[in-house]
Each structure stands twice: as structure tokens, then as C-alpha cells.
Amino acid sequence: MHNMEIDLDPVFYPKSIAVIGASANPMKWGWIIPANIISGGYTGRLYLVNPKYDKITKLKCYPNVRSLPETVDLAVFTVPSRSVPELLEECGEVGVKAAIVIAGGFSEVGNEGKRLEQKVVNIARRYNITLIGPNTMGIYSAPVSLCALMPPVRPIKGEVSMISQSGNIGTNMLAFGRVNNVGFNLFACSGNEAMVRCEDYIEYFGQDPNTKVILAYIEGIRNGRKFMRVVDEVIEKKPIIVLKGGRTRSGAKAARSHTGVLAGEMKIYEAVFKQLGVVIARSTDEMLDLAKAFTRVPLPKGNKVGIITWGGGYGVLISDACEEAGLELAELSEETLEELNRLLPPYWSHGNPIDMVGDMNREAHFKCLEILVRDKNVDAVIALGLITGMDFFEAFRNFDFVPGEFIEVFSSMWKNYDRIALSKIKELIQKYGKPIIAVTLTAEASKVQSVMDEEKVLGYTSLERAATVLAKMYKYYEHLRRKKSVRGDRLGSP
Amino acid sequence: MHNMEIDLDPVFYPKSIAVIGASANPMKWGWIIPANIISGGYTGRLYLVNPKYDKITKLKCYPNVRSLPETVDLAVFTVPSRSVPELLEECGEVGVKAAIVIAGGFSEVGNEGKRLEQKVVNIARRYNITLIGPNTMGIYSAPVSLCALMPPVRPIKGEVSMISQSGNIGTNMLAFGRVNNVGFNLFACSGNEAMVRCEDYIEYFGQDPNTKVILAYIEGIRNGRKFMRVVDEVIEKKPIIVLKGGRTRSGAKAARSHTGVLAGEMKIYEAVFKQLGVVIARSTDEMLDLAKAFTRVPLPKGNKVGIITWGGGYGVLISDACEEAGLELAELSEETLEELNRLLPPYWSHGNPIDMVGDMNREAHFKCLEILVRDKNVDAVIALGLITGMDFFEAFRNFDFVPGEFIEVFSSMWKNYDRIALSKIKELIQKYGKPIIAVTLTAEASKVQSVMDEEKVLGYTSLERAATVLAKMYKYYEHLRRKKSVRGDRLGSP
Known about the structure:
The structure is a homodimer. Chain A has helices at residues 9-12, 29-39, 84-94, 111-126, 167-180, 198-207, 224-234, 249-259, 266-276, 284-296, 312-325, 334-343, 362-374, 404-432, 445-454, 463-487; strands spanning 16-20, 45-49, 55-56, 59-62, 74-77, 98-101, 130-132, 138-141, 146-149, 157-164, 184-189, 213-218, 240-244, 279-281, 304-309, 328-329, 354-355, 380-384, 436-439, 459-460. Chain A has 3 domains: 1-136, NAD(P)-binding Rossmann-like Domain (Rossmann fold, 3-Layer(aba) Sandwich); 155-296, Succinyl-CoA synthetase domains (Rossmann fold), CATH 3.40.50; 298-479, 3-Layer(aba) Sandwich (Rossmann fold), CATH 3.40.50. In chain A, strand 18, helix 14 (404-432) and strand 19 form a beta-alpha-beta unit. By secondary structure, chain A is of the alpha/beta class.
């Protein structure tokens, strides 16, 4: 199938939608999906279709797609697999442009299912209907506020688009995005990919001006040649972050019973991904980490890291993590060393990592940070413990060994410093164009993570994750640089 | 130094303590440390010592250690390094049994510091004082509720003991333990280890009847021979989980300026750790994961994992994670397959992982879990998505497409299932003696993590972490089995 044959506009920008198989039973997908579309705030017109009902709650229900007051752009099928061919044929006859088939029971369950799927594809082709799925959890589109999804997820709108060969993993990424302040623009569970495949979505996202970062959960690729061509083109404009399921014999076996795809030889995938400059995520958590990174900070233009740490042991661990991830510790310039000598107590570490040695003068920490970021030898900064999230004297409240006023003053000052740290980080990124990654060391990790995410500061609760993300960003930068230098382009900001 | 020369009882079980260098300034350690000891609820007698004060708040302050009403077991020094020798000499003369020297400025800062440290050690040896540090953040002892620590951490009491060559990492582990419901019994920051070393603490924790699991953050080992002997002995009784800092060239360099220790060649450490059966943690997070695992579930007696999952994509990823960690997916027995055929819809995965395919009948999930746990081919179970932490219909509240009563009933039922899942897991562990690890897949990860920790269910928010932990537990079990079989012991429960 040529690309030109696939039109995803009616899927992601439908003016009207029909749910074929709408139900009055809240335990049925025929109820939950339209409920998601309505309560998700879809900006177009929605019609419910089922000959069994005149109304579902307050909404009119139509007996079939012919009886609708207009020809809808998109039909969402919530009927069992065996009913799909006939109803899709009807959609084709009235001129529906796209269909999402939710039901499973197709190629993933054996030969009979395969035949049924082929029948559905043939109908779709005959009527030029763009077919999503079958066996899919649906799609999301921020521009028309469309949550045509099985689980009741309400994503935040943003710059990330995703294609997922797993419904649970995909829709969970939307939910994690909501909790972590990562917004999505377009999203699809590709299901069995009977017609529209992983590589088609990537191509579409590549052309979408509102998509800055592409995520893909992939178990297997059906058209390797197209995948390679598309990724090679798109990746120059935006990073493509791939989590590959079915990397092992056991995983590949599980994938066969999941979406019926052949997971293939992981060594080949790894080699292809590497050659194409794909950013490889090792887990759903890392995929989210990377989505944050690529949307929140500029790319590092080298692999020399400057580190500021509140505690020597953490300085050791982050040095290990950086080197293990393929980064190098920057050699601080003479100017930087002199400036730090003037600023810090004489027993400071006199090198990178800069250990603030438990010094409670947090104004000095902010100055250190700027000195480090502007050092010409430093391409990126990891700041450990700068955001403490800590009420240092909390343990002493209502304890009469303590002057109460002091505690109050100190605590509010300390809290205020966290807010200052967050805006300082954003200001310095703006000013110097280098990435800064914060790592909070506090045990109240999830609390501080929320604060950092709220402010869209790139921050993690794990120093290993910070180092991994930075190394992967640098690899992507290097891939772009090599590609451009091969072509003789002038190197600008990618 | 022979083991018999080091007596750690006065450090961890002191009947009385003097803080030498107590202060009235809440920004000084001389104030914070006694405040921690008092508000931490120390069960013994505490004396403040400083000739500058008669009183600090309501407490009497003594001019020197001679003027105290009794000979204290332990002196905590919060004076600058240069004052330590003279004051320690005084302690020696009156018969103080142990001293913790908080100040830095000793061997970690160069030759002059090294000489000062040697002088302090000589005094301690002359008077038979057990010397902790210098350059330490202190110790914690649950049996006497002693928080002789720099940061205001209040650990939960429990079965884990820890030695840390980093104050920040060590005391942070206590704080993380508090948030994650991991309790500690004994804890020490070993600092520069001028006298008492990492291996001495491990030996002591090995003999401590209330310690079930030992954690160690290690940058370098000063007495390799003793370390190997001690670990080899202790590890038969309890697991020793080690996080090694200074694994790389950069990390080792940072370690030199941190505690002055030589981090050494990581390949040698890895080989020694492996030979001794040490459980290697790769991060502080993993150290905590492992501490939970070893205190909450029995050891797996084989590497065959049974998996139950709510979603096929996650089944693929957990299969990959298990195989990559060195585990194998169990081949389900005929009986199990038959039982599951009777229980699950016909399109279930018919093998391991058991994909519950979005089935909302959660009673059936619990039955699946028990069928899986009791299968003779299954050594351990990972349950994905069994605890949802999810209010499935939350998105539909106050939305008039929805029958309100239904939502209420469904939501409370759904919530109740999470509680049932938690007790079911604990019940099945008890009944079958096999480890069960829960992995929540919800985006409200930190919320569900708290609930699982509160109930002391072994649960994670990352399936990769679950697989890694299980694989490391199995390796430890195998080490014990091999050791016993070499000696010809009958194999029992380790």
C-alpha cells in the first residue's frame, strides 16, 4: 500500500463521528467509549448507532448509519468482530471516510480470525475507508479534543505524539503523561495493523506541525523498508523514541499471542534502530523520562557534563552513572575554578563534581550553578539536591528544646529556595542554551517530582535516570550532526 | 586489628551519652545532633558539654566530661577537628568507652589531616575507646531509640541494618525507609574508618539477632582479607546487599576527594562480590527495592516465574524483563491449564503469561493467582495490574450521560478489590511459601506504592524492577544452596 492511499485526517480531525454499537450498559465498551468522547469534550458532532435503542440516557440513538442526519467522517465500531463486515459495508456505501474497529477476535486468534480480518480490509479498501485496528483501544486527538479510547483517560494536550502496538501500554502512557505533566497531541493504538501500520503513523506525526517528539511502542514491524525510509526522514525533524517489546525469546512468544506480530530478531532491530538514530527506551518509565527531556530542555552539543552535588557520596554515584552511560565529566576551566574558590569554603572538592559539602548557604549554590553552566568546557549540567523538597526542621516542631520562631523563619526561607531553584534553572537554560537536569535526593521523592513537573523543569528522583537520558539526548544530537555533516549542511541548532 | 579489640556495644547500646561541643545555635551541628537525640526519644541519659554555656534552653550544660555526674558510655564530638585530640584524651582518662567524631578535616583533606587522624586513633587505642569516624554523619540504634545523626531523620524500627561510607547516602536510606515502610535496626556512617571499618560493622550486624538484612554503601574496602572472611560467614545467615560507589574511573576519582579511600578496580570487586554471594545493587533505589524484597517475601527456590497480567503488551515487556534478568518463564502444568480453561474466557492466552485480557471480573483474577502460585512448576509469581489503585469511572463523575448510582456502587466495589488483592497476596505467600511480587501499572504510581508498602506487600511500580529483584533473590538462594551442598548439609529453608 502506498502512503498516498492512507488518509489519517478523518481519523485525527473528524468533524463528526458515529459509534456503531452504542450501548446503555455502563459495563460495555459501547457505553464507555462514547462516554469518553462526550466527557472528553469532543468538538465535533457525535451520533450513537444501535437498532436496540431509541435513546441512551438523554441522547438519541439511530438504528443504523444510513439514518444519520449527515455522513460522518469517522465510525467507531464497538460491536463484536463477526458483525463488523456487514456494518462496515454499510458505512462504505454512505461514504464514511474512516473506521476504528475496537473488537479483538481477528488475526491474533488464528486462521478463522485472519480470514475475517482480510474480509474487513477488503471492504475498507473497496470503499477507500481508512481502517484503524482491529483489536485496538482507540485514538486520541488534541486538536479536536477527541478521546475515542477504551479506558477513561483524559490526556493533557501537548507536543508528544504516540503510536502503540499495545493498548494498555499506550493508553497508560497518556495517563502517566497526565500525572507527569507531559502533554500529547496525537495518539493511536494500532492494534492488529490490518491496514494502517506503525510506520504510517510515524510518517503522519512527522508531518504534523504540532508534534515535537514521537513515541512508539513496537512489538514488530510489518513493512521494514517503509519503516526505515520514514524514520530516516522524520528523525531529522524530531526525535523518535522507541520501546521495543519482544526483545527476548520469551517476550517474542508473548507478542505472538498478543497482536499476532512476529517480533523478529532483536539484534537486527537494535542495529537498524542505531543506524537510523532512533532513541531506544528500555522501559515505559524511560520512555516518559525521554519524552520529558526532549520537550523541556535543548539538546546537549557535546558529552561533557558538569555536576553540582549536595553530598560527596552522590558525587561518586553520579560520576559512575555518567561514565557508564557514555558521558564524560567536564574538566572545569581555570576561570571557573577561580570563581568557585572565591565562592566556596576552602575544603570544597576543587573539581568536577562540585560538592557543596552540606553547605547551607543556598544563594551560593545558585551562583555555583551559573558558573558551571557558563563554563565553555561544559555541555550539560546535572544538579543533585538543588531542589530539596525538605522541611529541614520539621522533626523539631513542637519540641521544646527549640526556639519556635527560628524554626518558622528558617523553614519558610528554605521552602522559598526551592521555588527560586526552579526558576533559576529555567532562566539559565534560556540564557545559555544548555540542558540542566535536576535530581532531587529527598525521600519525599514523589512530592518533589510533582513540583518539578508542574514547573516543567526537567527533573528526576534518580541520578541514574538523569545520566541515561542525557546520554541518549547526546547520541541523538550526534546522529543529526553526522547526517548533516555528511550532506555538507551548515551545523545549526537541530 | 583483631575483631575482639573492637567493641561496638557502647556505640549501639549506650546507657549514657555526652555531646562534646553542644551549642545554643540551631544552625550548628552541636545543636542539631543533641536535638535529634532528644526528640528521637533516646532511652538513656544525655549530657551536654561546653564550657561556654551553663544551660542550653532548659538543659544543664557541663564545662567538661570530668564534671558529668557519671562516666558516659559514648561521647559524640561536635567540635572542630583540631580540638578533638585533647578532648578525646580527657574522655579516655575518665573511662568513656566509645566516641563518634563528626567533624571532617582529617585524612580526606591531605597529609596534615592524616597526621591529625593518626593522633586521634593513637589516643583512642591507648584508652581502648571505640572510635567511629571521623568525618561521619553518625549512627542510629533502634533498641535504644538513638538518632545520633546530623540530619533530622527519624527512621522506622525494623530488621534492616546498614553501614554507609557516605553520610548523605546512608542517612537518606533511613529517610527513604521511613517513606517506604522499611524499618532499620542498626545504622552507621563509617566516615573515614580510622578505626572501625565497614567489615567490622558487617561482622557486628551478622551477630545481631534483630538484623535480618544488611545493606552496605561501599566506596573502598581497607582490609580485603577480613571483609572476605566476614562476608563469607555472615552471608549464610542473612543477605548482604552492597551498592559500590567508584565503579568507574570518574567515580573512583570523586571517591578519593570524598572519603580518601581507594575505590580500586571494579572488576576485582565484582568478582569477589560474586564469589561471596553478595547481592549487588546498582542504585540507591535498587538497594531499597532489595531491602523490601528480602524482608517481605520468602526466597524463590528456583528461577521459574509465573506471570499474571492485565494487558498483553505488559505480558510481553515482563517476559523480556524476566529473561533479560536471567529468569525463565514457567511452563504451566496440565492441571493449571485445565483449571484456567474452566475459569477464563475462551480467548485467554493459554499459557504463561496469563493475560486477563481486560476482563473486569476481579474475583476470577484472585482465583487465577492462586492456581498459578500452587502450580508445582512455578517458583515465584509476578502479578501485573492486580492492584489497580484506579477509580475506573472517576472521569465520569458529575457527567449526566451516566447513571450516578451505578458509578458509586462500581467504584466502591473496585476499591474494595484492591484491599482484597493485598490480603490475598499475603495469604498466598503464607500458604505456599513462594514469593509473589505485585506490580501496579497505574499512573497514580506513588499513591499505590504507598498502599502496598503500608501493607508490607512486595510491590513495585516498574516491572523491570520486579524482575531484577526476583533474579537477585534467586541468585542469593542458589549461592546458599551451593555452599550447603558443597558441605553436604541437608537442604532446608535458608
